[in-house]
């Protein structure tokens, strides 16, 4: 059986009361979530001036990732589709404001106000069609479109995600690019099956120097238990919808008679057997040929 | 839900062109102490819809905010403290938010607004 929760049930049903409690009482999960959100916040690259920012936590669940934001002094708004998860968040008395909402329906926020967004292990849920009315492509479009609108220009959004396969990753990435984001995927520890983590780093606004995708951790076989300290990490993949397309030379005319004579001359000089130049060489053919 | 969230929220029902500000219906309001940070207020101030904030604060029973505000007032700490109180310390615990255009109600329970849309509203 698969161990991917997305395949078992829709999020608002999968994370029922008991699953939500299980999720939040596991110290292992808490630890992982804290580390993921720490890294996401790092990738968010907020200016270091000590000013608290207004951040968005998409798929905040029981507020584990939000706690990291609070610890770093930011104010945040959390959005989740599971009431049970939010109830646990209330019990844990998280600092941020909580909203019950479905990110696939688009975010109900005013344009240009959010300083940054993080999302831990949530976007891949959008690729599922749990109801007959769900169309993953449209839900992704609604989500990224509304996110793009509500972010301030130049703000970043970082999504830690577990895409099921390459097609899913492409679908997510493409939807983000269509919405206008620039950015790409950062992969931490790409050589390790267990510690490998994917982050989608998006910047709102046209591509510039500041939209360059940061590097992943542990790219050159660095052991995963040691955190940080890797200098020569490598960026794994970048895509950018504004990148100029490869230019194809299209000339209607073809190569021409002179070109053929030149080539034949070259081959003759090499000593190849070349047919003689005649009036038929490189002549125009009739259209029906 | 606090007022800074209310100031950000707008209804995104299909076909609604101006879903801001959502009207607040109050059943219960809570006050919680939050550490005062003038930088946050200053940073957030240009993005605020002031009128919506003043109206929202009135609805929650806090009428200390002036009708008009501009960035020169950010110098005064008293003003910053008032804004801070309105933004971060007033919680709408029970009640509802109403879309100004369609009148659709989003219930608020235990401080969490339910913004889930029905299938025909997406």
TrEMBL record, chain A:
Residues 56-158 form the Methyltransferase type domain. Residues 243-255 have a biased composition (Basic residues). It is found in: Cytoplasm; Nucleus. Coiled coil: none annotated. GO terms for biological process: rRNA (guanine-N7)-methylation. Residues 202-287 form the 18S rRNA (guanine(1575)-N(7))-methyltransferase Bud23 C-terminal domain. One of its GO terms (cellular component) is cytoplasm. SUPFAM superfamilies: S-adenosyl-L-methionine-dependent methyltransferases. One of its GO terms (molecular function) is rRNA (guanine) methyltransferase activity. Residues 211-289 are annotated as: Disordered. Its main location: cytoplasm. Belongs to the class I-like SAM-binding methyltransferase superfamily. BUD23/WBSCR22 family. PANTHER family: 18S RRNA (GUANINE-N(7))-METHYLTRANSFERASE-RELATED, METHYLTRANSFERASE-RELATED. This is Methyltransferase type 11 domain-containing protein. It comes from Populus trichocarpa.
TrEMBL record, chain B:
GO terms for molecular function: protein heterodimerization activity; tRNA methyltransferase activator activity. Gene3D superfamilies: 2.20.25.10. It comes from the Eukaryota. GO terms for cellular component: cytoplasm; nucleus; tRNA (m2G10) methyltransferase complex. Pfam families: Trm112p. CDD domains: Trm112-like. One of its GO terms (biological process) is maturation of SSU-rRNA. PANTHER family: MULTIFUNCTIONAL METHYLTRANSFERASE SUBUNIT TRM112-LIKE PROTEIN (PTHR12773:SF0), UPF0315 PROTEIN-RELATED (PTHR12773). Belongs to the TRM112 family. Interacts with TRM9. This is Trm112p-like protein. It comes from Populus trichocarpa (Western balsam poplar).
């Amino acid at each position: 059986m698969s161990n991917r929760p997305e395949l078992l049930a829709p999020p608002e049903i999968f994370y029922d009361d008991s699953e939500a409690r299980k999720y939040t009482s596991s110290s292992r999960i808490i630890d992982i979530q804290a580390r993921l959100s720490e890294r996401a916040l790092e990738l968010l690259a907020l200016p270091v001036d000590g000013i608290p920012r207004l951040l968005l936590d998409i798929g905040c669940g029981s507020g584990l990732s939000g706690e990291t934001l609070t610890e770093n002094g930011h104010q945040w708004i959390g959005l989740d589709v599971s009431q049970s998860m939010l109830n646990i968040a209330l019990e844990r008395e998280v600092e941020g404001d909580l909203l019950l909402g479905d990110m696939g329906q688009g975010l109900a926020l005013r344009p240009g106000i959010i300083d940054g967004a993080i999302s831990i292990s949530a976007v891949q849920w959008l690729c599922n069609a749990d109801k007959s009315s769900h169309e993953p492509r449209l839900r992704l479009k609604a989500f990224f479109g509304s996110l793009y609108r509500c972010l301030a220009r130049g703000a970043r959004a970082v999504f830690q995600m577990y895409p099921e396969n390459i097609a899913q990753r492409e679908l997510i990435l493409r939807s983000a690019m269509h919405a206008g984001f620039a950015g790409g995927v950062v992969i931490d520890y790409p050589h390790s099956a267990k510690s490998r983590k994917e982050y989608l780093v998006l910047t709102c606004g046209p591509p510039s120097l500041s939209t360059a995708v940061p590097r992943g951790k542990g790219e050159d076989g660095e052991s995963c238990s040691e955190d940080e300290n890797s200098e020569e990490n490598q960026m794994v993949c970048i895509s950018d919808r504004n990148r100029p397309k490869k230019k194809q030379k299209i000339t209607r005319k073809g190569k021409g008679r002179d070109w053929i004579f030149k080539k034949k001359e070259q081959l003759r000089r090499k000593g190849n057997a070349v047919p003689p130049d005649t009036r038929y060489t490189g002549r125009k053919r009739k259209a029906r040929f | 839900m606090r007022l800074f969230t209310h100031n950000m929220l707008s209804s995104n029902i299909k076909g609604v062109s101006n879903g801001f500000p959502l009207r607040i219906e109050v059943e219960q309001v809570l006050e919680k102490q939050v550490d005062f940070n003038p930088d946050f207020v200053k940073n957030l101030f240009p993005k605020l819809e002031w009128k919506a904030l003043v109206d929202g604060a009135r609805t929650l029973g806090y009428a200390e905010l002036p009708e008009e505000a501009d960035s020169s007032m950010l110098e005064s700490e008293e003003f910053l403290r008032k804004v801070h109180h309105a933004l971060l310390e007033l919680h709408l615990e029970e009640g509802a938010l109403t879309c100004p255009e369609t009148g659709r109600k989003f219930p608020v329970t235990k401080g969490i607004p339910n913004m889930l849309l029905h299938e025909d509203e997406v």
